[in-house]
Structure formats: C-alpha cells, structure tokens
Amino acid sequence: MSSSPSPFARVARFTRGGRLAVLAVGLCWLAVLFDGLDMFIYGSVLPHMLEQKALGITPDQAGDLGSYATFGMLVGALTAGTVADRVGRKKLMVACVTLFSLASGLCALAGSVAVFGLGRTLAGIGLGGLLPTAISMVSDYAPRGRGALTIGMLMTAHHAGGILSAYVALWVVEPLGWRAAFWFCVLPLLFVPVLAGLMPESLSFLVAKGRSEEAGELARRYDVELPAAPADKPAGSDRWHSLANLFRAGEWTQTLLYWLASFGGLLLVYGVATWLPTLMRSEGYNLGSALTFVVLFNLGGIVGMLVAGRASDRFGAPRISAIWFALTAAGVFLLSVHMPLALTFTVVFLTGVFLNSAQTMIYATVSIRSRPENRATAVGWTSGMGRFGAVFGPWLGGQLLAANQGDWGFTAFALAGLSSMVFIGVAALRGGKRADRSGSEQELIGAH
C-alpha cells in the first residue's frame, strides 16, 4: 500500500471532474514554480554579483535593478486581465513563461547594466502576467468548495521556486559564475510545449467567446459542467462602474486604507526577497548561511500559506492580517541583531511564515469586506496599487546599503510591516459593520 496520497490526488476525489482539476492545477503549479525561481534568482545571486563587481554593479544600482523586475510585474499584472480576455488564459500563460525564460537568457548574455536591466524588466512583465492568470485558471477548475485550498496549494509553488533559486545559486554560481544561474532559468522553455499541449483552455473564456462546441467537447471529456453564458453587456461598463463604486460615499477612505496596507505589505515582501541574502551577509554571515536563510524563509512561506486559511476561518482574516504583520515586523527587526546561528534560522523561518501569508490576509480581508458585485474589482485594484510598494522595496534596500546603512534596511522593512498592520486594522474596524452584508464566507486569494 502506498503512503499518504498527494494533495492533488485528494483534490481529485472531491469532484467528478477531478481529473481536469489535477491536470490544470498541476500544470499551473509547475508554471508558478518556474515563476518563483525566476523571481527569487536575482536576490540569491546578488551577493556574488556585488562581491565580484559583475557588470560594475553598485549597491544602489542593484536596488534599481530589483525594482525594474517589480515594475515589469506591475505592468504585467495590470494588463494580464485585458490580454487574457482577448487571447485566452492558456495562450497568455504560455506567452508569459516564454517571455520570462527568454528574458533570463538576455540577462545571462548581458554585457552592461542597461541590458541586464532590460532583461529583468521583461522578465517582470512575464512574471506579473503569469501569477494572476494561473490563479484565475485554477479558480475555473478548482473542485467545488475547495477554491481556497486549491489556490493555497498553487501559491506554495512560488515559494518552492524561491527555495530552488537558493540551491541553484549555491550549486551553480560558485563553480560556474552568476551567468550560469540565469541560463538555468532559461530551462522552463522546455516546459512550454508541455504547457501548450496539455493545458486546457478556460471554460469560462470559451463560453464567453461563443466557442460552445469546443467548450462542450472539453466538458464531456472530463465530465464537468459548463459555466453559464454571460449576459450581453456594454464592454467595459461593469469594470468602470465597479471601480467608481470604490470611491462613492464613505468608501474612498476604506479603499485608500486597503491600498496603503497593500503598498506596505508588498514593499516588505519584495524588499526582503531581493535583499535578504545581501543584508544577512552584511551582518557577518557567510554566503552559505545567507542562502540557507532564503530556503528557510520560503519554507516558512509554504507553511504560512497552509496555516493562514485555517487561522482566518477561526479568528477572522482582518484580525489575523494585523497580528501577522505585527509579528512580521518583530521578526524582521530581530534580524538586524547578530544572534546565534540556530536562533537566527528560527527567526528567519517564522518571519517567512508570517510575512508571506500576511499579504494574503489583506486580499482575504478586502474580499470579505467588499460587496459581492464589487469584490473582483476591489481585490484587483488593491493588488495593483500594492505593486508600487513592490517597486519601491528593492530600490529602498539598495539606497540604504549604498549609504552603508544595512542595519536600517531591516528597520525600514519592519516599519513597513507596522504601517500595514495599522492600515489593515483601521480598515477592518471601519468596515466591520459591512462584513455581515458581504456574507460570512472568506476567500483566500493569492497575494503576489
């Protein structure tokens, strides 16, 4: 008898269409794994690049380069929905994986900071477009009543990619140089034909485009129900009406509080993801220890994603979000203190648990505090505004290191966590009376 079944096998038993869920979620999981690898690889190889003065990069330039990728993610995230509505989610996922893989090749070939920066920007566009598209895809095919579990499982892939990036840096960079790490990130191109050949298109997209025969054949093959055809409405009218609703009456203060909380949360997430190995080296830890911190940080992220939903179901997403950010701030601040290695490892792991799921709690809070007809717009724009924090975080870390103020890097990131705690806490208190009208069911939505 085999050991305990895999998570995807357990999902398969929940519904008649389990085979389709396993296929779609499995392929999306692998795509997001490569997304995480490409996202975290820069932070993992950055200490080596600075030590070797690769391309003449200075700490402040390194921060700028980190922000280029997150700016590209901002562009990719904001345009993904529109592009997916036109060409389909499957084609967009294939395009995104192809783009960030080829962009890593450009980074590997770069002979100047400018070319390297272009490569990271293009990679960011692909990375930013893939994650929301993959989340939408698995939401389409998630077993009924298991949407939160399925999305949570998908998000573990992002952190698994972060762990992989640390080992790539550890095993590849020292003997072969930093360029070899980016060549490794080109390998997902081999996955593109698999993704293109096996990934089913979104049933919702097929029905919306009038491709009912194709949708019906796919539904019959995997024994799932077709979604209802959407009512005919003027293009874009609902989108702009829903956006305007975020600022009507007293909603504008609530909206801004959510946006500010998301800004601080993603500043923290991407600032730490980019600079953790370098900041730890500045505290006197060697390269091997610094990369172990990346592994532990992302292991914590995996655990945090699986724990966050249960904690929110029991105590409420807004409360958990505020507490998680407070604990994150404490953990990040403690990292500025040189502690025994075992204790530091513990703090890094726990910080990963709270940080990587604290941002998810913001989206869960926005989801349950928003009106059902306005929920998608509220969450989408909260994510988009938070991306500006993702751009600012890597830049801020670079500026502080360039000024030989590495200790202040941890302090600045800790303050970002405290600010998000305050903003999401105040927003939750102000929106408490509306929670009952929005329904009691909480949705766990991917944060990055």
Which structural class do you get from the secondary structure elements?
Answer: mainly alpha
Biggest sheet descriptor: none
Number of beta-strand segments:
0
Which series of helices and strands comes N to C? HHHHHHHHHHHHHHHHHH
Strand percentage lies at under 5%
Characterize the structure shown.
The radius of gyration is 21 Å and the shape is globular. It has 448 residues and is mostly helical. Residues 1-16 and 435-447 have low confidence and may be disordered. The protein has helices at 7-12, 18-51, 59-87, 89-109, 113-141, 147-176, 178-184, 192-198, 203-208, 212-222, 237-245, 251-282, 287-315, 317-334, 341-369, 375-402, 406-430, 432-438. Helix 5 (113-141) packs antiparallel against helix 6 and helix 13 packs parallel to helix 15. It has 18 helices and no strands.
Q: Descriptors for this entry?
A:
disordered C terminus; disordered N terminus; 448 residues
Give a nutshell description of this structure.
This protein has 448 residues and is mostly helical.
Helices and strands in order:
Elements: H1 7-12, H2 18-51, H3 59-87, H4 89-109, H5 113-141, H6 147-176, H7 178-184, H8 192-198, H9 203-208, H10 212-222, H11 237-245, H12 251-282, H13 287-315, H14 317-334, H15 341-369, H16 375-402, H17 406-430, H18 432-438
